[in-house]
Design brief:
By secondary structure, this protein is α/β, with parallel strands linked by helices. It has a single domain (about 5-125, about 190-265), classed as Rossmann fold (3-Layer(aba) Sandwich), CATH 3.40.50.1820. Helices cover about 35% and strands about 20% of the residues. It is built from 10 helices and 10 strands. It has helices at about 40-45, 70-85, 95-110, 140-145, 150-160, 170-180, 195-200, 220-230, 245-250, 250-270; strands at about 5-10, 10-20, 25-30, 50-55, 70, 90-95, 115-120, 190, 205-210, 235-240. An 8-stranded mixed beta sheet has the order 1-2-4-3-6-7-9-10, sandwiched between helices. α8 (about 220-230) links the parallel β9 (about 205-210) and β10. α5 packs across α6 (about 170-180). The protein is globular, with a radius of gyration of 17 Å. The protein starts with a strand and ends with a helix.
Length: about 270
């Protein structure tokens, strides 16, 4: 069984799994998920290294402050957690919203980042938001979790995501029951940068994991082509066949293999 310790850095809660000399991994989840959603892949990621999984503000056990919910703020929270819990550079793995946070962290605290893995980053071309910048779908989605039991939400996850491994439904359900309903009541700013362009400013190796748009993936061929133009040899693109936006949940073996290649390279570079 993996060793685990939990802590808080300011308002932000985190879990530190595993141990060892390898370059640590920082895992950043998507909106309405939580650090717990990384548990199913931890046995493979925390092999000879620590994995730090952070609850974004308003998610999991982290508080939601009465201030704008921004990618810059989430990245600052993540940087503080890395300094507090790990104290050395990490391989940052970010899914969807977490992919944007990973980019912002690499740009604003490059001394903390050895490599970046972007799992279907939220490079939406036309994000629909209200006057406060809140994604229009968010309020209704949050309300759909209210008053639902663990069993009811697990049944929903199994129904809506029949291709996921069985161990993914419990963490997904727990995260939905924990997410702060006030998340839709504070201003949001997801557009502090043009993220598909800002990726070109990252100075460490970037691995981009994408699914198929026909299956719900949000990173398209134009995004990938532009990333190649901007990053050149720093970019490794791994297109996963038969999966959509939830790459690691729908193609776990391919996801794990890709991330392990990144951490192996980071270990070698660290000497």
């Amino acid at each position: 069984m993996l060793s685990i310790c939990s802590g808080r850095t300011g308002r932000v809660a985190w879990d530190l799994h595993g141990d060892g000399p390898g370059v640590p991994v920082l895992a950043l989840h998507g909106v309405t998920d939580s650090a717990e959603c990384w548990r199913p892949v931890l046995p493979w990621l925390a092999d000879g290294r620590a994995v730090l999984a952070v609850d974004a503000r308003g998610h999991g056990r982290s508080d939601l402050p009465a201030e704008p919910f921004t990618i810059a703020a989430l990245a600052a929270d993540a940087a503080a957690a890395v300094r507090d819990a790990v104290g050395r550079p990490v391989v940052v793995v970010g899914h969807s919203m977490g992919g944007l946070v990973a980019q912002e962290l690499a740009l604003t605290a490059p001394e903390l980042v050895a490599a970046v893995v972007l799992e279907e980053p939220a490079w939406n071309r036309a994000r629909e938001v209200d006057d406060a910048g809140v994604p229009r779908w968010l309020r209704g989605t949050l309300r759909s979790f209210v008053g639902r039991t663990q069993a009811e939400l697990e049944e929903r996850s199994q129904r809506e995501n029949p291709g996921w491994p069985a161990d993914e439904h419990g963490p997904w359900t727990s995260s939905k029951r924990q997410v702060d309903q006030g998340l839709a009541d504070v201003p949001h700013d997801w557009a502090g940068r043009v993220w598909s362009e800002a990726v070109g400013q990252i100075g460490v190796p970037v691995t981009l994991l994408t699914g198929e748009p026909a299956r719900g993936a949000i990173v398209d061929a134009q995004h990938v082509e532009r990333a190649h133009e901007l990053l050149g040899p720093l970019l490794t693109h791994v297109p996963l066949i038969g999966v959509g936006h939830n790459v690691r949940r729908e193609g776990r073996a391919m996801f794990v293999a890709a991330v392990r290649r990144v951490v192996s390279a980071a270990d070698s570079a660290a000497g």
